[in-house]
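Backbone-to-sequence.
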């Protein structure tokens, strides 16, 4: 079984969004050698919570995996848009949410409003998703 964060990263990477490079989708912390100017859009995916569920005879048969997705939008988004010049930050956020839902992930409520990263000046969108995985017993 793939790690849930890797599954989410693979789903987003496979979408080939023209506003974020696949090389800028991280399942680890963004390293100091990465662009910290705020001019690059990147996505950070990390584990948020996991819970064993569906117990029978003291054994769980499923794992409810929670993942945090953070999108750091380029500070030059309005000047250097993706190929679609009318694409807004909301459009990009909705595209990711829709893609994840179609892939079996559930969006947690409430969605948080975009915020401003104090270090880079980037608008950020953070949301939480979860999916239930059946655990195989051997």
């Amino acid at each position: 079984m793939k790690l849930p964060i890797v599954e989410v990263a693979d789903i987003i990477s496979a979408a080939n969004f023209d506003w974020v490079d696949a090389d800028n989708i991280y399942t680890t912390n963004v390293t100091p050698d990465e662009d910290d100017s705020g001019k690059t859009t990147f996505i950070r995916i990390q584990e948020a919570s996991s819970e064993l569920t569906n117990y029978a005879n003291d054994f769980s048969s499923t794992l409810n995996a929670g993942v945090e997705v953070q999108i750091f939008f380029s500070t030059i988004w309005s000047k250097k848009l993706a190929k679609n010049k009318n694409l807004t930050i909301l459009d990009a956020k909705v595209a990711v949410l829709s893609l994840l839902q179609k892939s079996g992930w559930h969006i947690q409520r409430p969605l948080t409003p975009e915020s401003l990263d104090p270090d880079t000046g980037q608008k950020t969108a953070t949301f939480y998703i979860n999916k239930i995985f059946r655990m195989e017993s051997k």
